[in-house]
């Protein structure tokens, strides 16, 4: 191993130089959580090239999702597209959302923020992005977090925590604090903030609302509410999709109002599943192909497909292959079926998704 980079910022600068543009922070954060930054800092062979390649793949997924209006990878539409027809949002959802927003508006700490920071005058929706950027400059450099190995911790009588550091350990930069907000285009954006500044205060106000009063609201929605008074819509069913660019199951997370009827929930999930899977109905794999997928995944490393086929034939003579190319095709096909199912990525990220999500975006705000 040969260490070339000693700081995360050096790696980011090198990646941005290769890309010719700034990295998307939400993608960088995910790659860091997945261990790519640590691999480069550790000096592992080809780690930087793997990081760069993975970033480009994730960026493609992010941008395609943003264009399609799909709530994946942080690219979420906050405002419904302009429509001439009546709103598709159920009247009951609108009434509940307005009632909850009215109650939150009367909370003392919300009124205090609007009075002291906004001068008692709410912003217009198209002023949010400019206000955020101007306030960021006013607040100063973003807060940076670092960690270091601790030998022990002392708790004083007044419950103050005093750590003692291991002097042989180095400080490691962890990252910054981010605030989500709606941009002029209606998409969620993220900005690094100074936690001691006005944006830090806004984030604390927003999270107090979400934690104790409106768990169904999301950060960017609540930022818009505090700054403009826009009402976050609380849909009966909210979902997010987690796509893995390296292959793997497509996970769907559902959040729904406990009052929704089971049949209505099933109907909503059917729409979501159709968006993800298309109209395909995957047949279950045979026992042979299930065994083949596991066998290939466990034994392929270091073997040619022909040698792997002979090994398979010895273990499963009743399912023996004569042609290693056919064996290879079946094995890869079975693995892909089990890992990815019948996920229709073209539908999920393309025009079909745009057409579907236009009727009910994952995040909505009402003037």
Give me the secondary-structure topology:
Blueprint: H1 8-19, H2 25-33, H3 36-41, H4 47-68, H5 91-105, H6 108-118, H7 128-139, E1 144-147, E2 150-155, E3 161-165, E4 172-182, E5 188-193, H8 198-212, H9 219-228, E6 231-232, E7 237-242, E8 251-256, H10 262-277, H11 287-299, H12 305-315, H13 324-340, H14 345-349, H15 351-357, E9 365-366
Antiparallel strand pairs: 1-4, 2-3, 4-5, 6-9, 7-8
Helix pairs in contact: 6-8, 8-9, 11-13, 12-13
Question: How is this structure best described in words?
Answer:
- This protein is an alpha+beta fold and 367 residues long.
- The longest helix is centred in the N-terminal third of the chain and has 22 residues, at 47-68.
- Strands 1-4-5 form a 3-stranded antiparallel β-sheet.
- It is 49% helix and 13% strand.
- It folds into 4 domains: 8-68; 91-232, no CATH class; 237-282 and 344-366, no CATH class; 287-340, no CATH class.
- The radius of gyration is 25 Å and the shape is globular.
- Residues 67-86 and 350-363 have low confidence and may be disordered.
- It has helices spanning 8-19, 25-33, 36-41, 47-68, 91-105, 108-118, 128-139, 198-212, 219-228, 262-277, 287-299, 305-315, 324-340, 345-349, 351-357, and strands at residues 144-147, 150-155, 161-165, 172-182, 188-193, 231-232, 237-242, 251-256, 365-366.
- It contains 15 helices and 9 strands.
- α8 crosses α9 (219-228), α11 (287-299) packs across α13 (324-340) and α12 (305-315) crosses α13.
């Amino acid at each position: 191993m040969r260490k070339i980079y000693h700081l995360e910022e050096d790696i980011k600068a090198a990646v941005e130089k290769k890309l010719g543009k700034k990295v998307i922070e939400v993608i960088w954060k995910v790659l860091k959580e997945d261990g790519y930054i640590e691999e480069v800092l550790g000096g592992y062979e080809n780690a930087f090239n793997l990081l760069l390649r993975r970033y480009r793949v994730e960026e493609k997924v992010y941008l395609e999702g943003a264009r399609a209006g799909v709530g994946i990878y942080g690219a979420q539409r906050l405002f419904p597209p302009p429509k001439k027809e009546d709103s598709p949002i159920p009247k009951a959802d609108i009434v509940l959302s307005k009632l909850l927003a009215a109650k939150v508006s009367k909370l003392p700490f919300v009124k205090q923020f609007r009075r002291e920071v906004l001068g008692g005058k709410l912003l217009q929706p198209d002023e949010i992005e400019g206000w955020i950027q101007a306030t960021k400059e006013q607040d100063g450099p973003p807060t940076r977090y670092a960690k270091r190995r601790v030998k022990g911790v002392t708790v004083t009588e007044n419950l103050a925590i005093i750590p003692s550091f291991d002097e042989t350990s180095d400080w490691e930069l962890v990252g910054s604090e981010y605030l989500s907000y709606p941009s002029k285009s209606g998409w969620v954006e993220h900005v690094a903030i100074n936690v001691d500044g006005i944006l830090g205060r806004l984030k604390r106000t927003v999270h107090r609302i979400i934690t104790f009063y409106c768990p169904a609201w999301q950060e960017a929605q609540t930022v818009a509410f505090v700054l403009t008074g826009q009402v976050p819509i609380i849909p009966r069913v909210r979902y997010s999709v987690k796509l893995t660019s390296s292959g793997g199951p497509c996970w769907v997370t559902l959040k729904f109002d406990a009052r929704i009827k089971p049949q209505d929930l099933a109907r909503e999930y059917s729409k979501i599943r159709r968006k993800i899977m298309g109209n395909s109905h995957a047949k279950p794999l045979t026992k042979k192909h299930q065994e083949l997928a596991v066998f290939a995944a466990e034994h392929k490393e270091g073997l040619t497909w022909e040698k792997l086929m002979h090994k398979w034939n010895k273990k499963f003579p009743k399912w023996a292959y004569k042609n290693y190319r056919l064996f290879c095709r079946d094995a890869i096909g079975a693995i892909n079926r089990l890992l990815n199912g019948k996920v229709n990525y073209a539908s999920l990220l393309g025009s079909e998704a745009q057409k579907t999500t236009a009727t009910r975006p994952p995040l909505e705000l009402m003037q």
